[in-house]
UniProtKB/TrEMBL annotation:
<dbReference type="InterPro" id="IPR003723">
    <property type="entry name" value="Precorrin-6x_reduct"/>
</dbReference>
<dbReference type="Pfam" id="PF02571">
    <property type="entry name" value="CbiJ"/>
</dbReference>
<protein>
    <submittedName>
        <fullName>Cobalt-precorrin-6A reductase</fullName>
        <ecNumber>1.3.1.-</ecNumber>
        <ecNumber>1.3.1.54</ecNumber>
    </submittedName>
</protein>
<dbReference type="GO" id="GO:0016994">
    <property type="term" value="F:precorrin-6A reductase activity"/>
</dbReference>
<keyword id="KW-0560">Oxidoreductase</keyword>
<keyword id="KW-0169">Cobalamin biosynthesis</keyword>
<comment type="pathway">
    <text>Cofactor biosynthesis; adenosylcobalamin biosynthesis.</text>
</comment>
<dbReference type="GO" id="GO:0009236">
    <property type="term" value="P:cobalamin biosynthetic process"/>
</dbReference>
């Protein structure tokens, strides 16, 4: 049987991985939690760049790569495209649609960290939902600001920052409670798409809070692209049947 390599670390990828069996491989970065209930092989860690990924594809008889990484994991997506092209292996991708602004939203786009800092300069109590990046800037917090940072893993804060380790999905009630308790006046977010972390945007709309949205990176094209995991899984199961 030809093997499928699923590049994951997202809820969408995990939904697919739960339906896979050996010898297929679910690959996650070392920073992600390792699921304990999967029937497929689980691989943890990087590949060593494009060259390392090419070697892995050949050495493990991989017939298809499915890129279901985070929409902001552009480097991994580029490496997957380059490696699959060099190895002559098809690449599929699960590309979650971005959130779209709605009436009542006040969204401001930022291209990078510097742009985010500029956009929030006039605010005092930002809520960061960017993952780990704000943790590298805890010693740069302006005297006029107090940050609330939500990320997946525990991390020590300081007198000017509260760190919340939490994993979605988040509901509207919980997001209201957090935003009100922390007196948030601006939300900083990746445009991740999906339902799991969308509630904060609804609360921002209710409260009239601005949202600084980090612009999505451009991603390489794939032979097939899916906007949700169920359709990707159907195609993947058909591929599995046809290659046995």
């Amino acid at each position: 049987m030809k093997r499928v390599l699923l590049l994951g670390g997202t809820g969408d990828a995990l939904a697919i991985a739960r339906r896979l069996t050996k010898p297929h491989v679910y690959s996650i970065a070392g920073l992600a939690r390792v699921p304990a209930d999967l029937a497929c092989e689980v691989r943890v860690g990087g590949f060593g760049g494009v060259a390392g990924l090419i070697n892995y594809l050949h050495a493990n008889d991989i017939a298809l790569v499915v890129d279901a990484t985070h929409p902001y994991a552009a480097r991994m997506s580029r490496h997957a495209r380059e490696a699959c092209t060099a190895a002559g292996i098809p690449l599929w991708a699960v590309r979650r649609p971005a959130w779209q602004s709605q009436p009542g939203d006040d969204w401001r786009e930022a291209a990078n960290w510097r742009g985010i800092v500029e956009e929030i300069a006039a605010f005092h109590r930002p809520l960061f939902t960017l993952g780990r990046e704000p943790l590298a800037h805890l010693d740069e917090i302006p005297a006029s600001q107090h940050w609330t940072i939500r990320c997946l893993d525990p991390h020590e804060g300081n007198a000017r920052a509260d760190i919340i380790d939490a994993r979605g999905p988040f509901d509207i009630g919980g997001e209201r409670a957090l935003i009100d308790a922390a007196r948030i006046d601006v939300i900083v977010s990746k445009n991740s798409g999906g339902k799991a972390t969308e509630a904060k945007l609804a609360v921002a709309r209710e409260r009239g809070l601005p949202v600084v949205m980090l612009v999505r990176p451009s991603l390489p094209a794939a032979e097939r692209e899916f906007d949700e995991p169920a359709s990707a899984l159907d195609a993947l199961l058909a591929f599995d049947t046809n290659t046995q």
